[in-house]
Batch of 2 targets.
Target 1
Amino acid sequence: MTSQEISEFVNQPAPRKVPRKVFLTAIDKSDTNLYRWVLVFFAMILGFIYLFQWSIYSDFLLDIGYKDTAQGAIISITQEMRQFGSDYHLRIRFPMHDGEIETSCYVTPKENIPGWGVIPETWNNPCLRSSVRLETPFPVTIEYIPWNPYIARAVGTRHSIFPYFFKLISFVTILALIYMTFAVFLRFPRAKRLLREGLFAAGRISISAPNYIVSFTDQCGMNQERIYEASDKHISTCRQWAHEGRSVGLLYLPDQEKVIITDLWLEN
């Protein structure tokens, strides 16, 4: 923005129209950093995509009923150590009309393994520290996705990776939603009201670590001081103006602690 554009905007009678360019510039130059909201938004979308990918491979479709069943068997059991604990990897096989399918599924804890305590190998190797191929395949009912039978599991088992990632991604997503909601429903409207109804004044910036103090005289002739939390991009500019004692233009409202320094709009 240019000095003339800023002057034309602030000299309009309140409430002013707030062009999109002015709003985005003011949001970016204020403590509310638009790029952070955009980054969080994309992180949230990527999180949902990641969650969806995990759901495909962690039996989500089976959980909601997209499945057929067949009689099959467990042929081996392996314990796999992971960051959040251990999973038990079951190799299973079952017949299809075009041949036999051999695939795998996961289960935690070991007591949920079909046949646990009945399969002889679970007596002799209760910890299952290594891969155990069953001498006699243990018969189980297999449920599988009709269009991709390699996504299958023994009835009663669940993919153990899914809950960990679901909790992690859900937590991050909830934080992102709170962050976005705070921006959209609180900070953005507050900033827009300040732009629409704000009173223009000239003031000076002083440093009161770790904050910056903006001092100005309001339209009633009263001296006012407001804390201004400069964004990372403008810390050096605010520090320089404070040392120079430079007069800066700003918008304020009597009932808001926040101010917008219009001179920072020139620092695009």
Note: The chain has two domains: 3-32+191-267, 64-155.
Target 2
Amino acid sequence: MAGKETINLSYIAKPSQRLQFFSELKGKMDGATSEFLAGFKMRFAQGFIVGYMNSNYKAFAQYTKMLEEGALRMEFNSMIDFGSKKP
């Protein structure tokens, strides 16, 4: 494999019908860059929540709600950067 090619390893676990865990490791064969991501997805009757964090210490969350039997879709997104050095 050449140094510019990437490798991806993913894992998905579904412990119940409503809950799913996932993780992914991405890296280049040169060993200089890699990224890890892990999270979950939880389903409800009219919506779902997705949350994950990556190796850059950024956490993401998304809440999606279906209204009027799927005619309307509402989303709330958030991101927190725990790796930021800003005061």
Note: The chain has a mean pLDDT of 89.
